[in-house]
Amino acid sequence: MLAKYDLPELIRRVILAAAAALLVAPLALAQTDPLPSWNDTAPKAAIVAFVEKVTKEGSPEFIPEHERIAVFDNDGTLWTEHPMYTQLAFALDRVKALAPDHPEWKDTQPFKAVLEGDMKTLAASGEKGLLELIMTTHAGMTSDDFQKVVTDWLATARDPKFKRPYTELVYQPMIELLAYLRANDFKTFIVSGGGIEFVRPWAEKVYGIPPEQVVGSSIKTEFRMRDDTPTLYRLPQVNFIDDKAGKPVGINEHIGRRPIAAFGNSDGDLEMLQWTTMGGAPARFGMLVHHTDAEREYAYDRESEFGRLDKALDAAAITGWTVVDMKADWKQIFREK
């Protein structure tokens, strides 16, 4: 039988086939790990197991594509939230930028505390003081104008610890998780306690999440004609607070489906995880990011002023939610420069 073949040509083909296999093997191996920045610990295994069972047709826990909704908190879940929420840093900078037009702020709290860098007095002003800052710095302009202010600020502002743009301080493992879910026909949403119009201008570029898939807190907005141009004008009045018990309400109003997976990091996400995991589809998944890495990022939980994780951490032990130990479970924290 060998006589029918050109032996040198046969050898050449075998060698080329072997070489091709060697080239393809590393690529195939790399493609088997959708979460390369995660250590091979329990949280990674839980994520993969969940995705595999809800996407496998014929499985008793199979969930059709149109029901594969995953919701993510933003601050502390997708990007850093210490030493303060990024939107609060934005508001403080806005006070300083607007101060020349408001000389009365030098003697008026909480603006006086901001201008003097007195964070203790600012903190003492409580929710009322912070709300006044937000209303003053985020309203009195059109939605388009606000979007430009946010975009311009993010282009120049730098985190005080890492000296990098805030949009670079996103968690690489979570970016991979978003991509992994979308590759398996999940629709991913941000459900943030932060302002919906603060997050929308950059969410698609940074996370791959379009503005219509962002749910967040909002101030009242009204339609106005200005110089024969239709605009949406932002008013200094609270419309909706998308935090704690507000998150399930926001999900219902904006998304219209109960998620099958929810990802958070604080007590502000407790009700969102409860709404997602307690009832409904046969397979549900809840996950908390626990900030345990003081060297590469921050370590905090029960006593933190920002991103306190106390009640939700206790609930995780009862409900079976996956808790990610940032120090132990993530090979890498931030996206590379």
Cα(first) to Cα(last) distance is 60 Å
Number of helices: 13
Rg value = 24 Å
Main sheet strand line-up: 2-5-4-3-1-6-7-8
Give start-end ranges of low-pLDDT stretches. Answer: 1-5, 14-30
Shape: globular
CATH hierarchy, class of the domain at 37-83 and 163-329: Alpha Beta
Sequence of secondary-structure elements? HHEHHHHEHHEHEEHEHEHEH
- What CATH architecture of the domain at 37-83 and 163-329 would you give? 3-Layer(aba) Sandwich
Compute the number of strand runs.
8
Largest sheet: 8 strands, mixed
Strand content: 15-25%
Helix % is 40-55%
Mean pLDDT: 92
Please name the fourth-level CATH homologous superfamily of the domain at 37-83 and 163-329. HAD superfamily/HAD-like
Secondary structural class: alpha/beta
CATH topology of the domain at 37-83 and 163-329: Rossmann fold
Brief rundown of the structure:
The protein is of the alpha/beta class and 337 residues long. Helices cover 43% and strands 16% of the residues.
Task: Give an overview of the whole structure.
By secondary structure, this protein is of the alpha/beta class. The protein has a domain at 37-83 and 163-329: Rossmann fold (3-Layer(aba) Sandwich). 43% of the residues lie in helices and 16% in strands. It has 13 helices and eight strands. An eight-stranded mixed sheet has the order 2-5-4-3-1-6-7-8, sandwiched between helices. Helix 3 crosses helix 6 and helix 7 (143-156) packs across helix 9 (196-207). The chain is globular and about 65 Å long.
Question: Secondary-structure map with pairings?
Answer:
Blueprint: H1 7-31, H2 42-55, E1 69-72, H3 86-98, H4 111-116, H5 119-124, H6 126-138, E2 141-142, H7 143-156, H8 172-183, E3 187-195, H9 196-207, E4 214-226, E5 229-240, H10 246-254, E6 261-264, H11 270-277, E7 285-290, H12 311-319, E8 322-325, H13 326-329
Parallel strand pairs: 1-3, 1-6, 3-4, 6-7, 7-8
Antiparallel strand pairs: 2-5, 4-5
